[in-house]
Design a protein that fits this description.
The protein is α/β, with parallel strands linked by helices. It has 3 domains: 70 residues, OB fold (Dihydrolipoamide Acetyltransferase, E2P) (Beta Barrel); 191 residues, 3-Layer(aba) Sandwich (Rossmann fold), CATH 3.40.50.150; 143 residues, OB fold (Dihydrolipoamide Acetyltransferase, E2P) (Beta Barrel). It has 9 helices and 22 strands. A 7-stranded mixed sheet has the order 9-8-7-10-11-12-13, covered by helices on one side. A 7-stranded mixed sheet has the order 18-17-16-19-20-22-21, with helices on both faces. A 6-stranded mixed sheet has the order 1-5-6-4-3-2, with no helix packed on it. Helix 7 runs parallel beside helix 8. The longest helix is centred in the N-terminal third of the chain and has 18 residues. It is globular and about 65 Å long. The chain starts with 7 loop residues before the first strand and ends with a strand. The relative contact order is 0.10. Bound molecules: S-adenosylmethionine (SAM). The site of S-adenosylmethionine has 18 residues, from loops. Keywords: Methyltransferase, S-adenosyl-L-methionine, Transferase. GO terms for molecular function: rRNA (uridine-C5-)-methyltransferase activity. Belongs to the class I-like SAM-binding methyltransferase superfamily. RNA M5U methyltransferase family. This is 23S rRNA (Uracil(1939)-C(5))-methyltransferase RlmD. Pfam families: tRNA_U5-meth_tr.
Amino acid sequence: MKNIKGETMTVDIKHLDHKGSGRGSTWRENDEGNPKKLRLIVPQTLPGETVKVTVDRPDRKKWRTNPQEILTTSPERVEPPCPHFEKCGGCIWQHWNYSGQLNYKTAHVKQILEHKGYDKGLVRETIGMEDPWHYRNKMEFTFSPEGDLGLHEQGNFRKIIPLETCLIAGETMVDATMVVSEWVKDHQLEGYDKDLHEGLLRHLMVRQSFATGEIMLALFATKAPEGPLQQAADDLVARITERCPNVKSLLWLENTDWADRAQSEKDHVLAGRDFINDEMAGYRFRLWFDTFFQTNPLQAAKLVELALEMGQPKKTEKMIDLFCGVGTFSLPFADRVKELAGIELVESSIESAKRNAEDNGLSNTRFLAKDARKGIDQMLESFGKPELLLIDPPRSGAGGKVMRRIGRAQPQRIVYVSCNPESFAEDLQELEPFGYTLKEVQPVDLFPHTFHVELVTIIELKEK
Ligand SMILES: C[S@@+](CC[C@H](N)C(=O)[O-])C[C@H]1O[C@@H](n2cnc3c(N)ncnc32)[C@H](O)[C@@H]1O
């Protein structure tokens, strides 16, 4: 196919792709003069729209395009409220009204399950948020080499959009970020250049407990806050103390690694403590800068509530929580079962889960830091067969080995919490030969204005 970059064409948007961008197609002659279907990706469009686009670049077997003019507008289209919307990669569906987003998420889950042979009638309507803005309790902003602080441009990890506002982050988190941004400019500090591996400031991680109000600011830098930087660090402490009383943890974290991750080789507590206190579903959690915790706390509390409702834990039962993280589900379930065992890969999360259980006065838990694929056998041998099992794997799903091991262990009820309907459906199929039936699927919108959807589901062993 000849290069069609820069060509303008008209396209009907039929579907959305797996990342939430519009998809359509048109016909073109190929080099041999035969008609060839061109598959086009059109960001910021909606199903049912007709759009004039300019072709940008090839993307695997498709062409990425830029919308120029919406010729037929979807009745669900709205004016995106955020000034960064067109460029920022944070939330790609701000041009879609919220009920349209929720309906799409429900239909998408139904379609995936139906495709795998399940009854789509088991899928309930997606539970949305009453106010779908300022819902995130954690953000990671990046410094450009010039010292601008903001989010990455969509599809371009080298470009930073200087932050003016963010409509999905908690509002006081944005205020605290702006104080740091101003401080960087006033001291003319340089950002880090990842191509040259030079410069000082890399990222700013902001996390806040919506329950206690406490904020953590963690600045990742390539040098210690010493020598000439000491004065600047002292000034940051003074500004934050005066203007952001909710900041209970102000950290300077050294990271000299080439890898561009928010990790630390040496931690400096500039002010306050090295953790913040949070609460979820009535349980207390301590969060360090590297603790994984659900990022939409209001909706995550609903996930816990739904998991309890579907799992029906009993005081006589044993339970396993696979991929347990810091114990978001383990703690409320442990309160309602005889004994609970959690498995999780990340050691620091397991340390947190143990401490969280202790902080909440739970003495019937045990936690194992291990890859689930290996840890599950070990746990089943030492702990015995559970009546109830909760599983909340990463996006890739649990995989056949883990699912078949669960199937052989024959827990009566499995609560499967998923952030990816596709991998959920695949894992579910692995359970079929072991006599399980899918009973109910509840989608929950944890990330409004993005294509992500979370599921809480219940799978039961058929009566013999
Ligand atoms: C979706 S999170 C769920 C965490 C927890 N249930 C919660 O709600 O906070 C998935 C978890 O699986 C863990 N994980 C990823 N791969 C793993 C593996 N192979 N074995 C065990 N845990 C794993 C991650 O560290 C993460 O904590």
